[in-house]
Design a protein that fits this description.
The chain is mostly helical and 154 residues long. It contains six helices and three strands, in the order H-H-E-H-H-E-E-H-H. It has a three-stranded antiparallel β-sheet. The chain is globular, with a radius of gyration of 18 Å.
């Protein structure tokens, strides 16, 4: 069997970065497979639904583009696909005539709830069940720091 580097042979910052990349890739692939199998819903579509579900009001399309990890053109394509499935609606913005706002339909809310349960069940054994509240809080703090730094550079 080929030898792998032990963690002690890799500088801490490098191992932390590798772990971040590994976790993001592996967990995203796992969730994507589960969502597609159970709901015919790619993880990129789920991400848009997640942001819409977390907002009590319709969300301007531009805000979705700024909030997700998708490009604005990807968000537009995802919203088109979700709209064609009857999961979201687009309405002209009441604040900006050049903009549209996106919101979940009742069918979209129902699918999101089911897909979110699938996501949580999929991640439980390999993520949330393995970490305690302190671990999750520490990860959340790290993500906030990294994201705040990125947003400060924009």
């Amino acid at each position: 069997m080929p030898k792998k580097l032990a963690q002690k042979e890799m500088p801490t910052a490098d191992h932390a970065f590798y772990g971040l990349v590994w976790a993001g890739t592996v967990l995203t692939q796992r969730v994507d497979r589960a969502l597609i199998k159970a709901h015919d819903l790619p993880v990129s579509w789920f991400e848009v639904l997640l942001w819409l579900a977390s907002s009590p009001d319709p969300v301007p399309a531009s805000v979705l583009g700024n909030s997700t990890m998708l490009s604005r053109s990807q968000v537009s394509r995802v919203v088109d696909a979700l709209q064609s499935r009857g999961l979201v609606t687009r309405t002209p913005s009441s604040h900006d005539a050049r903009s549209v706002e996106v919101s979940l339909t009742p069918a979209g809310r129902q699918l999101f709830d089911a897909a979110d349960a699938t996501r949580r069940a999929c991640l439980g054994p390999v993520f949330t069940d393995l970490l305690d509240e302190g671990d999750l809080a520490a990860l959340s703090t790290v993500w906030h720091k990294l994201k705040a730094d990125k947003e400060a550079q924009v």
